[in-house]
Amino acid sequence: xxxxxxxxxxxxxxxxxxxxxxxxxxxxxxxxxxxxxxxxxxxxxxxxxxxxxxxxxxxxxxxxxxxxxxxxxxxxxxxxxxxxxxxxxxxxxxxxxxxxxxxxxxxxxxxxxxxxxxxxxxxxxxxxxxxxxxxxxxxxxxxxxxxxxxxxxxxxxxxxxxxxxxxxxxxxxxxxxxxxxxxxxxxxxxxxxxxxxxxxxxxxxxxxxxxxxxx
Length: 215
Prior knowledge:
The chain is α/β, with parallel strands linked by helices. It has a single domain, classed as Rossmann fold. 28% of the residues lie in helices and 23% in strands. The chain is built from six helices and eight strands. An eight-stranded mixed sheet has the order 1-2-4-3-5-6-7-8, sandwiched between helices. The longest helix is centred in the middle third of the chain and has 14 residues. The two termini are 31 Å apart.
């Protein structure tokens, strides 16, 4: 059963964020952490809805399952990989305050946010049930930390901003270390690989099917 989410603007703490909350509060629900791209940095939270998952949710498109979605905003002069401590604290605070299923915490991001997602998952692989980075890359030397984490990456074949090789290199490194990563490449798509990703029912079916095991 699909559910529409209502956005709330939260400005306390070092990272202001949008919180899309289920209409049935009180029940434990999955948590999705979304990290935006470089163009959405700053102090205006509305910019976070420009692309990706927040754009789809703010347009009224429902998720197939009730879930909390957190979409923080990166400071104007910063970069998501520099904000890992604050992102970790945001997730832990949500787990403490919200009715979240701790076995179903998911991480996704686009472009700069995808780099941040790779970095945060590498730092805290035990926290997340799945990782879904879009048009981005990470650090192959640290791929062995991700071998127990289900990963589905996405990239446009004609990406002129972040080369496809960035995703290919990370997926190869994770799988070479014994992990479980897959990559979807969209032919004839440039940097905007996120529109097709976040409008694909198969993506959500895969994402919400993942559960964190003790590892």
